Predict the structure.
Amino acid sequence: MKYLKIITFFSLLVFFSSCEDFFDQTTKIDIPPHVPKLGVTALWLDEGNDQLVTVFASVGALEDENSSAVSDAMVTLAENGTQIATLEEDNTKKGFYRPSVPVELVAGKTYELTVSAPNFETVKAEQVMPSKPTIKKAQFVNSVANSNNNGNGKLHLTISDDDGLDFYLIGVESIDTSESYSSIYSNSGIAEDSGLDYSRVILKDETFPGADLSQTFDAYVSSSTGTVDSVRVNLWSVTADYYRFDRTYNAVQNADDNPFAEPVIMHRNFEKGFGVFALGDKSSLVIPVE
Amino acid sequence: MPKINLTKDKQTMKTKLLLCLMFFLGITLQAQDYTISGYFEDSETGEKLIAANLFEASSGAGVTSNTYGFYSLTLPKGEVELIASYLGYQAVTKKIMLDKDMTINFVLTPNSVIEEVVVVAEKTKKIQKETQMSQVSVPVEQIEKIPALLGEVDVLKVLQLLPGVQSGGEGQSGMYVRGGSPDQNLILLDGVPVYNVSHLLGFFSVFNSDAIKNVTLTKGGFPARYGGRLSSVMEINMKEGNNKEFHGEGSIGLISSRLTLEGPIQKEKTSFMVSARRTYADFIAKPFIKAASRGSDTDFKMKLYFYDLNAKINHKINDKHRVYLSAYSGADVFGTNIKDKSPNGDYFVEKAGIDWGNITTAARWNYMISKKLFANTTMTYSRFKFDFVVGEEDKANGNLETFDVRYFSGIYDWAGKVDFDFIPNPKHYIRFGVGNTYHTYHPGALSIKAESSSDPFKIDIGQNKRYSHEFYGYVEDDMTLGALKANIGVHLSGFKEKKTQYFYPQPRIGLRYLLNDRWSLKGSFTTMAQYINLLTNESLSLPTDLWVPSTEKIKPQTSWQAALGAATTVRDDIEVSVEAYYKKMKNVVSYKEGATFINLEESWENKIEQGLGTAYGAEFLIQKKFGKTTGWIGYTLSWNKRQFDNINSGKEFPYKYDRRHDFEMVVSHQLKERVSVSATWVYGTGNAISLPIAGYKGYVGVGYNGQPNTRTFNVLGEKNSFRMGAYHRLDLGIEFTKQKRWGERAWVFSIYNTYNHKNPFFIYLGRDYSPNGTGQKSFKKVSLFPIIPAFSYRFKF
């Protein structure tokens, strides 16, 4: 009798085990509703389209709508606590803000970008303008003979580095402004391909703080107008936030659609919002192709 | 003449050194001291008893047997009353006249479970008397009574039910000890490291409980003899084999069957033990697959099983020398082979297979050098490999073309060590030893091969093998200074990989202060270093996880841990302990954000981030190890954090297994002589996870047209800032045993997750597609195991 009871009990369990709904192992879970926040991007590298700030409203992960431009935002820039500029929305591009006159940023000074808009919490981010970097020496040696007279060789570069942790972005380009292609490669071991612009490399001076960095990079420069006799080497010193944003953006690109990839938290430095405010200053040097 | 003076000087120096050593060790030159030594054995099986106790009644001097059952006790000349005891065994009292060094082997008889063993309990060593803290052991007999997933008794799953130990996720056998990661656990099977302890993606462990004699887990307060990992040491000793008579035991369960045979080869001198376990899903599926493909042009073959094979032989050469040879082999084998045949003999085959597993072997030599000095020399080999193959064979018009892709990874160790136990007197127990391990790492390689008459090729992508030496030496003394006991020692370890060398001295101290006969306070401070790392996917314990060495770029992991606690024994059979700990870890490893093991073109060294770990908390344990009712109640309150420069923007974040509350209750009760029941209830705070929270548009530089490029950024919340729902589960079991003419049989019934709680395994962002719906996005929780009834049939003869 007692065995019968046990067998009946287990039979009932097996019966219940076959009930699909009862044992549906996927269930919906609720998360708090998303409150839209300002998503601000400002990557100021002292080049074309510089001092651009994009302001968009965030959408929740469960929403299908696209992130929309915020046109009624108040975007201001302060230097060492004093407001020095108000940025205006581009007439042709909603959500794109620029100062009416480019602001001259001074190394060592602290800049605070503040964005506020109706129905959004005000967001702020702060950056200290890095010093202009020093290209101590640069040499481009063409190593591959080719019929197109492109620059395809080695860039030997020496950077004079300050004390402390510094971050650099390096690029090389044709000096003519016509359609051309150029790239520098991260084959040196210290640098990595920039995620924001694959034709550049990015690095930090962890391994050589305060010392000169001499490094050789593979590089390629072409020009549609003729022979590449000389190239422009660009060196930026960028802030830690630029470096982190670039690295996480690069990781996001690499991890796209890969289920085995580790999750990536996009770097952000705006409190109470999303996005990044980052600065960089550039030095350039035109050198002949040898 | 000067020569003679020199010899005299040397002798004088030696005498001085000896006197200094004696002073330090508290040795007094009493001619009347004699030493009793020998082994503790089980009367029925001849198995050596680990951590059995011997003490002298009047003086209270005592000693505990070592891993090989050896003890040594030095006492003054005269009549002594010796009491030998071991948990779950009848104590033996022996009065002798001690007037010379003696060898006594204590042969203890197991208690019947039904007996109330209070008298014995009084004589066993209490938790408050031991110096060691943060150490737990669960008798194997008790492990076998605890209800298990699909009826598969699992040592690791039981250890996860102890405070300070957490499982990874639902049904996983990975262990997270005091905030550590799985690679920070040194899991030793007969002294050999086992690198992958999981079967079936972590749902079962590789340890077959039928082959196991003893399990001990040390979570902190590590004595100097342990090293090489930051967070825990789990020692699992295999049975030696009954040296008196032949016996067997086994079980037939829902997913696997087991059989263990043991017995003497030469009675009381040489014995063996062989144990095997295999799953049989493939056997069950085979006739169905065959029936389905009957009459078709397609043959379908499938391999789907795991197995474990344990074997051990031990031989007593004489009273001073014993040798042991033990081995383990286990693997998971998954494979499919689909063959499309044509009547003209042409065919096309698609095949895929995954095969991973461990092999370990150990050869040991126990040598009782003197009554006070015991040596164990061990040579070991350990191998873990993972092999994944996909391929095609195409035979058309008599031409055969093949294409194979193979991914391979693994780690191989050769090791040797010599350990000494020196017991000069009851106040000191000194251990010292040295060891070296030669590691060979194969951190992921891909081979693509095509063979055809037209265009054969072979490409190898991936990482070269790496080699390293890991070496260590240690000395420790477990000393008694009145009410204070201390275990003080140092572990010196080094590591050499290519031209890179590391060396870390790791001081260790453990203290126990006896407040009174019932209560003691304990404290410990330990430092650890770890030179090998596991690159692992956080979500699952995949066999694709890679073991890699410390290198010039990847620094060794180090930690320090401080713990304070109190221990007592209530009613002589219930151990109560409470401990608080704080652990700091440096250079812990993680994959970089966005990194994956699949990308073999990038060196694994470039995929690693190293950072800091902080774990602290308190653990509470009440445990009853013998009697009609056994089990424990455990609770852990803990915090567990990580910080990496390039993960989560450099901000500190909760580790995935940061579990604020972890509660477990395990009870087994002998209802009647032939019926026992058991229950387990666990509750844990949900795991920390990262979820996407929002998206926004931003610009990412300038495009070729000179205009800013924009894209939508998906924003993950801060790393591990969400919590899955709480995990809780009730398991029930009942066992009916019956004596038969040929031995004993038992029917075991169990229910896993009795109230069918949908415990979270992972959460993903999906869409709800209703018949007329638009496919609204939603987060969905996937649970693995609903209520699962199971049964198994066990037998012993």
